[in-house]
Design a protein that fits this description.
Helix content is about 60%, strand content about 5%. It is mainly alpha-helical. Strands 1-2 form a two-stranded parallel ribbon. It is extended and about 70 Å long.
C-alpha cells in the first residue's frame, strides 16, 4: 500500500496540474492522520529492512522534488505536514525546492515579504530544513554544460564540436535562454526533436557540406533560443525573416499606425 501510494503521488506531482488534487486529499482528507499513518508505515518498513541479516544497508535517502510546481500555499501546507516524517531514524530527506516560489505561500501568515519580516520567512524554513544548500548556479561552467548536452544528442559531429568550443554560440545561448539547467534542458529537448523529425533541414537544405552545414546548425540553435526566450520577436521573424529590412512601415503593420494629436 505504501509503495502504491508513493508511486501515485510521485507520478501525479510530475504532471503538475494534478498535483493540487493530491495535496488537497492529503491536507483536506485528514492530513495529520494520513501523515501519521505514512510515518508509521515508513518506520515499520525501514526497521524491518534494517534488521534483516542479509541486508547491509543502514541508511535510506528520500528525495522530495517538484513541490514548487504546486500552488505556493499548498506547497507550504504539504511541507508543514511532511516535516513530521523528516526525523525518521535511518533516513535522510533531501527536499529540492525553489525558495523564491514556495515562500510566496507564506504571504497569508506573515504578509508581504520585506526587510522587516524576512527573518520570519527564513525561520519557517529553518524549522523544516536542517541543512540548507543553495545550488551554485554561477559556479559551474555553462559553456561546457551546453556543449555536453549538444554532444549527448549528437547535434554537432566531432569536427563541429571542436569548432563549437571556440565559437560564440554558447554565449548566445546564455544571453537568451539563460543559465538555468532546466531551461537549457528544454532547449536541448527542442533541438533533439528537430533533429529527429526534420533531419532534412540540416542534411539536405544545402548541396554543400562542411561550413554551410555548420552555419545552418548554428542558425537552428539561435532560432530555437529566440523561440523560447523571445516568442514575440520569433513571430516577427516568421512574418519577415529579413530582420535588417524592418522599418517604420513594417512596425506600423505589426503595431498599427501611431495616433496623432
Amino acid at each position: 500500500m505504501l509503495a502504491k501510494g508513493a508511486f501515485r503521488v510521485g507520478a501525479t506531482l510530475a504532471l503538475g496540474d494534478k498535483g493540487g488534487q493530491v495535496a488537497d486529499e492529503l491536507v483536506g482528507g485528514g492530513g495529520s492522520n494520513s501523515i501519521k499513518m505514512l510515518r508509521k508505515a515508513l518506520e515499520g518498513a525501514i526497521s524491518d529492512l534494517i534488521s534483516r541479516d542479509q541486508n547491509d544497508i543502514q541508511r535510506f535517502i528520500v528525495f522530495v522534488d517538484d513541490l514548487d510546481r504546486l500552488e505556493p500555499p499548498i506547497a507550504v501546507m504539504v511541507l508543514e505536514l511532511l516535516k513530521n516524517i523528516f526525523n525518521i531514524n535511518h533516513c535522510v530527506f533531501v527536499v529540492a525546492i525553489d525558495y523564491q516560489v514556495v515562500v510566496k505561500g507564506l504571504k497569508d501568515k506573515f504578509g508581504e515579504q520585506s526587510e522587516s519580516n524576512e527573518w520570519e520567512f527564513r525561520a519557517f524554513f529553518d524549522k523544516i530544513i536542517q541543512l540548507p544548500f543553495m545550488m551554485p548556479m554561477t559556479a559551474y561552467n555553462i559553456n561546457k554544460y551546453i556543449e555536453g548536452l549538444l554532444e549527448e544528442i549528437s547535434f554537432f559531429n566531432k569536427s563541429e564540436m571542436r569548432v563549437m568550443k571556440d565559437s560564440k554560440l554558447s554565449d548566445a545561448v546564455r544571453m537568451t535562454v539563460g543559465a538555468n539547467p532546466r531551461a537549457l534542458k528544454r532547449l536541448i529537448n527542442s533541438l533533439s526533436l528537430i533533429l529527429m523529425h526534420r533531419q532534412e533541414i540540416i542534411s539536405n537544405s544545402s548541396n554543400q557540406k562542411g561550413e554551410d552545414e555548420w552555419v545552418i546548425k548554428q542558425m537552428l540553435v539561435a532560432l530555437v533560443c529566440f523561440q523560447i526566450s523571445f516568442p514575440k520577436i520569433y513571430e516577427l521573424l516568421l512574418i519577415s525573416p529579413v530582420f535588417y529590412s524592418w522599418d517604420d512601415s513594417f512596425v506600423n503593420k505589426v503595431t498599427g499606425p501611431k495616433i496623432r494629436d
